[in-house]
Amino acid sequence: MKVKAWKTAMSLALKKTPRTVSEFEKLPEHVAIIMDGNGRWAKKHHLNVSKGHRQGTETLREIIRHTDDLGIKVLSLYAFSTENWNRSEEEVSALMQLMLDFFASEIDELDAKNVRILILGDKGRLPEKQRETLKEAEKRTESNTGLRLNIAINYGSRAEMVKAVREISVLVKNGAVRAEDIDEQMISDHLYTAGQPDVDLLIRTSGEQRLSNFLLYQNAYAEFVFPEILWPDFSVHDYDLALDAYGHRDRRYGGRKG
Ligand code: IPE
Ligand code: IPE
Ligand code: MG
Hints:
about 45% helix, globular, six-stranded parallel beta sheet, binds magnesium ion, about 260 residues, Undecaprenyl pyrophosphate synthetase, alpha/beta
């Protein structure tokens, strides 16, 4: 590396203020984040787990803002999995309440920023109030053309695939589609993320290195980054470092260069 390029790389790595678009090699179109580590953060601070989740929503706000500032097209956030119902009633209800609080405090700003909200997952199992709030947020922002913000709630990738298979089966049964015409695109079109680009960069905080049933189909060729930072401690600077790591990855899609 030339001295000047090295100096620029070093000064960017040390820079703690949020970066701007021109300070990245290349940016992903679609970032997916598994926001993990709220429980461990709470434990570390001798707090109730719900305090960890609440602190996590502060990170969430900052990360959404920065994603929007950078002009990234799609941000998918894993907020509640189909498996998270297995947690204590107290924790589940704290998460449900946080959901309401988050939308109450953020929806005006998100809408004003032209953000389009889409909920990934089955709203059917959620309490009525939550279901209505989520539907309202989607409806209110459906014609917005800025950042596409996907929030996965009661989401499981396998359940999403089952849904897609069922929908396509009905089309085959009705004669609208022939079995031999089913292709990868058609499957994509029946996922919650229909019409959106695949995930380019997947970030999972807290050091865990697994997908936990998140966007399995959409992550087929995603680059993975696993920062060892608990979600409530994850800063915009840490996010910039993950985006920067993406910019230096060599994506091959099975091919060979040169
Ligand atoms: C992620 O944090 C948030 C949700 C699953 C809702 P966790 O609550 O899983 O945090 P850890 O993994 O216990 O630290
Ligand atoms: C995945 O995290 C779900 C969310 C972040 C919402 P979990 O903490 O629930 O996943 P596991 O249990 O560690 O795989
Ligand atoms: Mg966890």
